[in-house]
Design goal:
The chain has 264 residues and is an alpha/beta fold. The chain has 9 helices and 7 strands, in the order H-H-E-H-E-H-H-E-H-E-H-E-H-E-E-H. Helix 7 links the parallel strand 4 and strand 5. The protein is globular and about 45 Å long.
């Protein structure tokens, strides 16, 4: 089914969790919003998908209450399809000076057989990412690039294996060219999976009695990845110490909730 940009706009705004979508009220109180543009690894999940959990669902646990999160990440999107469907337009229509736009894509940009999503790392991928960077800056907001979190993949010797090809390197290079803060979540997550090992990492991904999913997280994996993101936001001085909390605290899995339904 093909949606018009107006339909996408209405659906995208409806899909943002109510607790984190009241941007106008937040601005009136001096609060600032962190927008997420990304794919299923970050996206809000709903009751029919539980226990699958996007790391964007856990990020608010690590941020001060005055730092709101508007999670616009959507399953299956690439840097290209997110733009082509008008979803970046939705963000740019509401983002305000002082806000942040956190951009994480690659999982679906890699799909060479799908022309609606595929981008080439050193050309079209960077070209699309520039649209996010330039759009945020034109509105007085700060763009932040994040390399894609790694999948769970190990070789026969038990070594965690990278799966994103040249995309992380292309994003790192673009960040340097554009002077944009880079959160290297790909490298950090790969190191974490290596530390945890083959069996322990199963507890962080959406492994259930009926599914062995090595891409998407369950609550522990989403919390662990969100912690990496929050720490990197602080380390790169995108956020100040007053903006973050609980970076070393245990976060109960029960804090993760899945709304009953969504329109997206």
């Amino acid at each position: 089914m093909s949606l018009t940009r107006r339909q996408v706009t209405v659906a995208a705004m409806a899909a943002v969790p109510v607790a984190f979508s009241a941007t106008g009220a937040a601005q009136a109180k001096g609060q600032r919003t962190l927008y997420i543009a990304g794919d299923s690894t970050a996206a809000q999940k709903y009751a029919d998908a539980a226990p699958e959990t996007g790391w964007g669902m856990a990020l608010p646990f690590f941020l001060h209450k005055d730092r709101l999160v508007a999670n616009h990440a959507v399953n299956g999107r690439s840097s290209k399809s997110f733009v082509d469907e008008g979803r970046l337009d939705v963000i740019l229509g509401t983002i305000r000076p002082g806000d942040l736009l956190l951009i994480q894509f690659a999982h679906n940009d890699e799909k060479t057989a799908d022309p609606t999503r595929y981008t080439e790392p050193w050309t079209t991928y960077q070209d699309y990412l520039r649209l996010y960077i330039d759009g945020a800056r034109a509105r007085g907001a700060r763009p932040v690039l994040a390399t894609s979190v790694e999948r769970r993949k190990f070789d026969a010797a038990g070594n965690a294996v990278p799966t994103h090809g040249d995309y992380p390197a292309a994003m790192r290079a673009l960040a340097g060219e554009e002077g944009v803060a880079l959160l290297d979540i790909q490298a950090l997550s790969l190191a974490l999976w290596q530390k945890l090992g083959v069996e322990e990492t199963k507890k962080y991904f959406n492994w259930t009695d009926t599914e062995q999913d090595n891409t998407h997280f369950n609550p522990p994996g989403a919390i662990a990845t969100a912690r990496l993101v929050a720490r990197e936001l602080l380390r790169h001085r995108v956020l100040a110490p007053r903006d973050v909390r609980r970076l070393d605290a245990e976060i109960p899995e029960s804090w993760i909730t899945w709304p009953s339904s969504a329109t997206a």
